[in-house]
Design brief:
It holds the Pfam family ADH_zinc_N. Keywords: Metal-binding, Oxidoreductase, Zinc. This protein is of the alpha/beta class. Helix content is 28%, strand content 27%. The model has no long low-confidence stretch (mean pLDDT 96).
Length: 338
């Protein structure tokens, strides 16, 4: 089989790999769709990437299972996505479904072990989550990370129904947040610097949009909230300026969650924030328990997750795909396998 490897400085290479064989407690997934995630770009741009097969948003079918796998967990032919981390499975965080917070060690697929930009992927059976037949493979891939990341952050904020939610950044995660929050009954105010992404935010349910290149986000938020300020905020872009605008826009008792992986730090002015009594939190993807709940929510409401994708590629188009994705001015991309 062929797998995609980052070789450094925005270079990619397709290499030949042996098809994996599942060991005890493992499965092999025949990948049907593998999403491109914004976090991939950190490795793509790096000078010394890991050398693993990249990609961590797989969706496909179970090709084979190893000894000891309960067929109720995974059986050949099941349609699945995965929670793309592996932990020790016995510490308190793993037992709660937070493999990425394992107290012993965490493996991130696509970074520490071979990922999903290949025809087949090896993973522990405990990471498998089944998807409904009504979901497309590409939708399942998105929910496994990008859309699931938005879900996890919204859960951190608490009940947003009936409230205004400010979403900074309308890339794939931000658009997912806009879609999910709208379905939960929130009024979403979407902020970005790209007009095309803001147009898509309207299509995903945003009640108002703000172009941060032409309008100060804080001024716009104050106007749109009748001078109250933001009560609930998600910062998905990772841009320091967006984070600072978010913190400057809070009303008393506001809740703000940071989930964007930016390069520049966001400075906190404790003196000014203290008067807001704000709750400031972070969110790192989601637990496998919440991944299952996110899949159920989207399936029951038939939400248009596949509409997140603006580009669909073959694996042999990987060079073109990541060059386009690196511009960060469109929607989500995905590799599709026959």
């Amino acid at each position: 089989m062929q797998g995609l490897v980052f070789t450094g400085h925005k270079e990619v290479e397709l290499r030949d790999f042996t098809k994996p064989t599942p060991g005890p407690g493992e499965v092999v997934i025949a990948v049907k769709a593998s999403g491109l995630c914004g976090s991939d770009l950190h490795q793509y741009r790096a000078s010394d990437p890991s050398g693993c097969i990249v990609g961590h948003e797989p969706c496909g079918t179970i090709d084979s299972i190893g000894p000891g796998v309960d067929p109720r967990v995974a059986a050949v032919g099941d349609r699945v996505t995965i929670h793309h981390y592996a932990g020790c499975t016995v510490c308190d965080q793993c037992r709660a479904g937070w493999f990425q917070l394992c107290r012993r060690t965490t493996i991130r697929y696509g970074a520490d072990a071979n990922g999903s930009h290949a025809q087949y992927m090896l993973a522990p059976a405990v990471t498998v989550v089944k998807i409904d037949d009504s979901l497309s493979y590409e939708a399942g891939a998105a929910i496994g990370c990008g859309t699931g990341t938005a879900w996890g952050a919204i859960q951190r904020l608490g009940n947003i129904g009936g409230n205004s939610l400010i979403v900074f950044g309308q890339g794939p995660v931000g658009l997912s947040a806009t879609m999910l929050a709208t379905a939960m009954g929130a009024r979403v105010i979407a902020i970005d610097v790209e007009a095309t992404r803001l147009e898509r935010a309207i299509a995903f349910g945003a009640s108002a949009i703000v172009n941060a290149t032409t309008t100060d986000p804080r001024d716009a938020i104050m106007e749109l909230t009748n001078g109250r300020g933001a009560s609930h905020v998600l910062e998905t872009s990772g841009a320091a300026q967006a984070g600072e605008s978010a913190l400057a826009s809070l009303e008393p008792w506001a809740r703000v969650c940071f989930l964007g992986l930016g390069g520049a730090p966001v400075e906190l002015n404790v003196r000014s924030l203290m008067r807001t009594q704000a709750t400031i939190m972070t969110s790192w993807t989601l637990s496998i328990v919440e991944l299952a709940r996110c899949l159920e929510f989207i399936t029951e409401r038939d939400l248009p997750v596949s509409d997140l994708f603006s580009h669909r590629w073959r694996l042999d188009q990987a060079e073109e795909a990541y060059a386009e994705f690196d511009k960060q001015n469109a929607g989500k991309g995905v590799f599709l396998f026959g």
